[in-house]
Amino acid sequence: MLYTDGVSETRDRTGTFYPLTQRIRQWASAPPRQLLDHLHHDLRSYVHGTRDDDLAALATHRVTPCDRKPAELDRAVPLQRGH
Hints:
Elements: E1 2-3, H1 5-8, H2 20-25, H3 32-46, E2 57-58, H4 70-73
Antiparallel strand pairs: 1-2
């Protein structure tokens, strides 16, 4: 997951930073869209009031094509040039 400082520097009303590492562990096995939804809702509930910084997060996961074995995906594929 990639995120901007607006996520990691979010604070509650007492000034405590959002505990991103601890919170995100509970959603680690969720698909990317669901993980981002959880994060969004959790950040909104953590901050009471208006935010004054931008937030951005990107979650990814590795996809294995159904028609290939995992070992085949690790081999380098040479680039072919057109004539």
